[in-house]
């Protein structure tokens, strides 16, 4: 064990460029523990104390880093070996103390069309049923994450949307631990950086993440976030595992994050293993398989404080009398039907399944004690309008689905329908007076163009949809929707090679003064 | 068959006091059909045409009444028999043509605490599970119904809240048929009225019904209405069946009506018979058994058009993947637990069961395709406030339950809690400016007095409830509740002996010009 430790030390990089001291204490196991702090304060030069005692305890002290070694085979602990090690370390410290290595990635959000609700294991985040999602085009909704490593970092730190947040939560720790445990050696000859597999355990990380859409607005920001974090870290640390294994790591950050590791249509297989190794995402079809679909998200105004999905699903598992029946009896059949609907691009089946499953998920929330309400009156109105339109047309034109919030995700069967859908949405939910259309319909603006709506005047001129003809003049609900985002199914995570897109400064490893413009925010 | 018809005719009363004509046509089956209209126009006196043809067709014409007899055994059709019959009829017409016999009853509404949702037989109205309800005090919420019979009525007619409505619907027809089939003879010596059992099939009814609360506002108006109709008709027609059998008849008008035939705590047993004979209500405990309870109803403002409960539950049965599990696996256990909670006056269990079952019923509505939303944002807010308060107190103070609409029915464990509850409700949902408190809190005004609220100024001065202390200043939602009704568990249907409370005029049998004042409307 001592040998191991020494060998590891050989590869160790001194983690501060200002290092002027390096000390080796070898204490006898019978001697009192060293007062390291006092030693550091008192001495400003390299010290090597010998002889070391048989069966003693060694402490290598670097500024801000202590490596303790328990000598089990002290015969191997020769002074010259130690001295050589220290010399090597100092040399490397002089050379490389200054570098920052980083990787930037972009990951999509996803929207479940067969819902995940309920865990069988809270820590490993193992679900009680399979789920299926559509990945949303990262051009319109995505997380960008830069991960950096440097010997100059003295702890793991993270900034979300420019604000530092704590990494102490179990979910972050799980992801960092799992990725570090699978890290491989890397060598960047150009920069003169060499990191051995075992070094990753010691090196600290800086992470900066940015969502180009409102965080915690019910738009799966944590899914995109953890997928992006795991994907970027895996690239940085040269993790050799395939995307499926990465999805199982992202899953431990946020369950639905595992589905954001693929583009197109993705299934999260619940798995059977107690350790969760087979609870991974698989791609059912890529985004090009069914590229007619257009997705419009209605971001619904809400004053209500919402229950987090984590605590919500825990309470459902504990109290709902219907959830177990859903996960055991209902969802397995729907999964098969949904896979078939996707495979055959059968929109009516796809829409029917997505709508009933969204509604059933919210039904289970209502069956929770205390009940959870994610949808509000505006959500209900949107559903009623869509149901009426679909019935009027005789066959579904639009699927709707709602996650743990009031926002509607509407999936139109094609572009023509999407433009009719947007007309309807703007008819029922016009912007408040003096709203710029350009900030009210975001994302793929060509849908707005197809809908023939350029200004508030065009919105006011929109006719009442024919499916309402026999009714009294329809109410319009200005202000009930904050904005719309037009998008489509999209690709999985990608690396951003252009270093100007990094969120961390390449020299300091600290966040750039970011603005939404810098990283090409399509929203707003 | 001819003999039967003649014997029935013997008992027939001539239904118009102005009768001056009575004609008997006996047509040969081979002769052309008589032109009755022309005959009536041409002749102004009694005609008896003989001889009658063997195997012929007879037509008795009274003004506004035609009785057709097919002679199957013509030997019995002797002229003298016919003449005697006609003579008798004319004599009776002279004596009794003028009377109106009527009965007025009052029936309570009820609120289910274990919900009825879903029929196994649409026509007989047989439920898929047992349900339990609390009968509400008819002093505050009730239907008053007057039923009248008179030979001068030429058809069954009904007025609801002063407006004539059609009785052609199957539900009314079922109740009328079932009650008529169980009618007994009556004799009112004073008025000189004698009605034989079999006469009821021929006599027509006038029915006037009035709810002292908004019809179809989700306050179980149809339950009170059909219970009252069946109860009043049974009294009028001297039906000898017990209350349980009557409940099975009321059930065929509106399922939950069967529970309004008893006061206090009532269980509707789903039964097993295909003909529904054992699907009846039983009283679990009278209203005096647990008289601490106070009930406050929040009538929630709603612009939404709601799905009727009839079509709603049909759609749930047809499309919900959760309803069957609820009715088979969940409700039977809850029924036993609720019976026990009522028996032992165990409020925490009562409240817990009532809340989760209300929520599960609405969950099943959401799991219906298309989904049904009965609760709105205001309903959700009320639930959230009650849940927070109950949690804060450590044990339930208030149970909530919602029927097929947004109105909240809140059951407080006792009067002290009710006054705290009303303070909270008025804090969160103050009336709009310039609302008279007296028209904002209806029913049992002593609760308002206990709460110490006399004016809008008192409402404005209400403190934020302590359970919200750690929150930002709470929002108040003026106008989101139309009004509150304070009430309590109450008695079953009763007869109103005082004829001034009848809704029909005792001479004409037509609706009185009613006002809410006349019948002592406690609301408004």
From TrEMBL, chains A, B:
UniProt record, GO biological process: isopentenyl diphosphate biosynthetic process, mevalonate pathway; sterol biosynthetic process
Domain (Mvd1 C-terminal): residue spans on this chain: 295-495
EC number: 4.1.1.33
Keywords: ATP-binding, Lipid biosynthesis, Lipid metabolism, Lyase, Nucleotide-binding, Steroid biosynthesis, Steroid metabolism, Sterol biosynthesis, Sterol metabolism
Record domain Diphosphomevalonate decarboxylase-like N-terminal: where: 108-281
Recorded GO MF terms: ATP binding; diphosphomevalonate decarboxylase activity
Any single Gene Ontology cellular-component annotation: cytosol
InterPro entries, A to Z: GHMP_kinase_C_sf, Mev_diP_decarb, MVD-like_N, Mvd1_C, Ribosomal_Su5_D2-typ_SF, Ribsml_uS5_D2-typ_fold_subgr
Family in the record: Belongs to the diphosphomevalonate decarboxylase family.
Protein name: diphosphomevalonate decarboxylase
Species per Swiss-Prot/TrEMBL record: Protea cynaroides
